[in-house]
Design goal:
The protein is of the alpha+beta class. The protein has 18 helices and 36 strands. The chain has a ten-stranded mixed β-sheet, covered by helices on one side. Strand 13 (222-232) and strand 14 form a beta hairpin. Helix 16 runs antiparallel to helix 17 (597-610) and helix 16 (581-593) runs parallel beside helix 18 (626-639).
Length: 763
């Protein structure tokens, strides 16, 4: 797929600009409160370093552009370095075998860089600022100077090697992978459905100076890897491209075209670097914990390597497919966590969730049972890139459940939860088209599905038959996972109808549900899985706590909720046996809502110590990437929260973080927020409005305030009875807030570090 025409302002942000909500100048051009930040130097402190050879996906450097991905590590049992070649659009197309086999992501293959002499050492750096791997490989015969990129706008891996005299004979070798679902590997214990077989072996072909690996598929279509080497002076550059086509067989032509038109490496990197430099400048964040700060910027690099608006919604490995039992897109937690950080980080151009749900909405109707397809929609636990699940079976993929029926598992709420991500994108941009065209019609259908099953009980309350709380393992009536999503969905539908001025005939039903839905089942240990099913075993997932986070239906700001929030959180994380990484990101974000910055930092620290791998990746039986990305959102929640119509600045900063700095942090209401915390106090905050909606700001700045624009002219504002600051800002206007009499320096800089820390990677 040709992605050269895509720009960083694609997707939701382009919609915002077209709708007239755009700020007067771009995030890149506006240097107010940023000054002369040394971006290469600052991001260089977060670069990953390798002075030992990585041996696995979890250890090595990774490159990508949302479609094409490549990871590097030692070739097992050989004197060679592997460069994987994978692509997020390459999947099978046999729906009769389900999403985990017949529609699964398919492995493509890898190159091996094979030196003349035995490898004795490496010195590599993943240069985040330029999105480029560079360094040296030392051998007994000499050395190989290395530079590598996956181009941000082309399906192109480029690796430039400058060998010493003794290494001039090094070679590149491509190894096609078997085109079969990775879930078939016997080590995962997941036998395929009867009749499922691998696709035929790839054929290796030549076209002039270009080699091709052509993988035809039993279902039709193909994916093709094309590569060629070009020698310029003392340097040899490998160009490799992957193209996919279905049901036609046009991929070979596309892959050949890409590698043949590839520019010299130095020219190729020019546009690549411009994109990445612009990307990073859309926002800024600095905290004194240097290890966590570096981790955060690596996640921003990672998500831009793994996601684009037009790319498939990330599967569990992102674009870097490896042997895994999970070769699909998972919708009962993984997707939601993967994309949260794009909102605060001001990167809505990466919002593949809103794009895919809008583009493939017809498929969502087909995923519920036939009697409900006239007015309902749902999304199964696992899908391919078009949101289809294919045939269902215990090991092939689970359908959207039917409440009260023992289908393989009656998991119902995944579409509603995914639409919460779309709602976040709407709230962070106030793009009415996203609300009108995607969120409202799909959420209406998702809630309609629930309405078929809600029924009054003897207590006069509406009850839900048994459904499944991911991934507890026990069905329960009045399941808290679903009750939270129903309440949130009905509330958002009513708000959306009012915003869109829609007189919806179902509005009365939504109000009835909100008025009479059964309360969340709870016991002495806090929220239960559902009625009659206590939370009684170790469980990694916080599906029974969505009403606390991320939906904010039950909040710490209501004193009557505090005991059950605290009890539920402590009870959940108190069972150690089955906890996993995202347990700790969820606990960190819930602690941040409770204004407990030290506890949030503790949970993120435990995450890093227990689960995060040397290259910041994560594993659970196989490679998965949602947890590190969601940890970046946990950091956001410590620094800024903007739910419920209030922007909360520095709500849960640990005591050890005396300083923090933000620039163009995006909040709900389509505000861009810049702020400086110094010596334990907020020194100043600047708010820019893109949509002109009411702005309520909560800070620790008490007493008399000065509220002005960038030129010193006063702005209208008032204190609310609870101390919050209400700013009157029209679209495109901004206000700087600081204590009266203070004259703060409005330049944003990296904050002083609390101490040194080791680089990520294998230094």
């Amino acid at each position: 797929m040709d992605i050269t025409r895509r720009t960083v302002l694609g997707g939701a942000l382009a919609g915002v600009a077209a709708a007239g909500f755009a700020p007067p100048v771009s995030a890149v051009e506006n240097d107010f409160a940023l000054g002369g930040l040394d971006w290469p130097g600052f991001l260089g402190t977060a670069d990953l370093i390798w002075r030992r050879m990585p041996k696995t996906w979890y250890e090595g450097p990774f490159l990508g552009n949302g479609f094409l991905g490549s990871g590097s590590y030692a070739e097992p049992d050989r004197n060679a370095v592997r460069f994987t070649v994978q692509h997020s659009e390459v999947q099978d197309h046999r729906p009769e075998f389900g999403s985990l086999f017949g529609l699964a992501r398919l492995p493509i293959g890898y190159f091996t860089l094979e030196p003349v002499g035995a490898i004795t050492g490496i010195d590599w750096r993943m240069d985040l600022w330029n999105a480029e791997l560079r360094g040296t490989i030392t051998t007994v015969a000499g050395s190989l100077a290395l530079r590598a990129i996956v181009h941000t706008g082309q399906s192109l891996l480029a690796v430039e090697i400058e060998p010493s005299e003794g290494e001039r004979g090094f070679e590149w070798v491509f190894h096609p992978a078997e085109a079969v679902s990775p879930r078939t590997d016997p080590k995962f214990g997941k036998p395929p459905p009867a009749g499922y077989v691998a696709n035929p072996p790839a054929s290796l072909e030549s076209s002039g100076d270009t080699r091709l690996s052509v993988q035809t598929l039993l279902s039709g279509g193909e994916h093709v890897t094309a590569w060629r080497e070009v020698t310029r002076g003392s340097k040899r550059t490998l160009y490799a491209s992957v193209a996919w086509s279905f049901p036609t067989r046009t991929a070979a032509r596309e892959a050949l075209k890409t590698v043949r038109r590839a520019e010299p490496f130095s020219a190729l990197t020019a546009g690549h670097r411009r994109w990445w430099h612009d990307y990073y400048r859309h926002g800024f964040l600095s905290v004194p914990d240097t290890r966590l700060q570096s981790f955060y910027w690596i996640q921003l690099y990672k998500i831009a390597s793994a996601a684009r608006r037009e790319a498939p919604v990330m599967a569990t490995c992102g674009p870097w497919l490896e042997p895994t039992p999970w070769p699909a897109t998972w919708w009962n937690l993984n997707v939601q966590l993967e994309y949260w950080l794009i909102h605060g980080a001001n990167h809505l151009e990466l919002d593949a969730v809103s794009h895919a749900l809008g583009k493939f909405r017809a498929n969502l109707t087909s995923q519920v049972a036939e009697p409900y397809q006239h007015d309902s929609a749902g999304i199964p636990r696992t899908t391919d890139m078009t949101l289809l699940n294919g045939a269902v079976g215990t090991n092939a993929g689970f359908p959207v459940g039917i409440p009260g029926k023992e289908t393989p598992t009656p998991e119902v709420g995944n579409l509603t939860w995914a639409l919460h991500n779309v709602w976040l994108s709407y709230r962070h941009t106030m793009d009415r088209r996203l609300l009108r065209d995607t969120l409202f019609p799909l959420l209406r259908k998702a809630i309609n599905y629930y309405l078929h099953f809600l029924a009054p009980g003897p207590d006069g309350k509406l009850h839900l038959p048994a459904t499944f709380s991911p991934e507890y393992g026990v069905n329960a009536p009045d399941c808290n996972y679903d009750l939270a999503l129903i309440r949130w969905g009905c509330k958002i539908l009513l708000e959306s109808a009012a915003e869109l001025r829609v007189d919806d005939p179902l509005a009365g039903r939504w109000r009835e549900v909100l008025a009479t839905l059964v309360p969340y089942p709870a016991d002495a240990n806090g929220y239960m899985i559902g009625a009659g099913v206590p939370f009684a075993k170790s469980h990694r997932h916080y599906s029974h706590l969505l009403q606390i986070y991320p939906l904010y239906e039950i909040t710490w700001e209501r004193p009557e909720h505090r005991r059950i929030i605290e009890t539920s959180l402590d009870h959940w994380v108190g069972f150690e046996g089955a906890l996993q990484g995202y347990t700790f990101t969820g606990a960190a974000s819930m602690s941040a809502q409770m204004l407990r910055g030290d506890k949030a930092a503790f949970y993120l620290g435990e995450l890093q110590r227990r689960y995060i791998q040397p290259n910041s990746m994560y594993k659970e039986s196989g490679p998965v990437i949602e947890t590190p990305l969601s940890a970046a959102q946990s950091l956001h929640d410590m620094l800024v929260q903007s739910w419920g119509g209030v922007i909360r600045l520095f709500p849960a900063v640990p005591a050890a973080w005396a300083d923090a700095a933000l620039r163009d942090f995006r909040t709900e209401g389509a505000f861009l927020l810049s702020a400086s915390r110094q010596a334990g106090k907020t020194r100043w905050v600047k708010v820019t409005s893109e949509a002109g909606v009411p702005c309520v700001l909560r800070t620790d700045m008490d007493g008399e305030l000065t509220v002005r624009d960038r030129w010193g002219r006063p702005k209208r504002w008032r204190r609310l009875p609870n101390g919050d600051v209400h700013l009157d800002l029209r679209r495109g206007e901004e206000a700087v807030v600081h204590r009266a009499g203070d004259q703060p320096d409005l330049e944003i800089r990296p904050v002083p570090a609390n101490g040194n820390s080791a680089a990520w990677g294998m230094p």
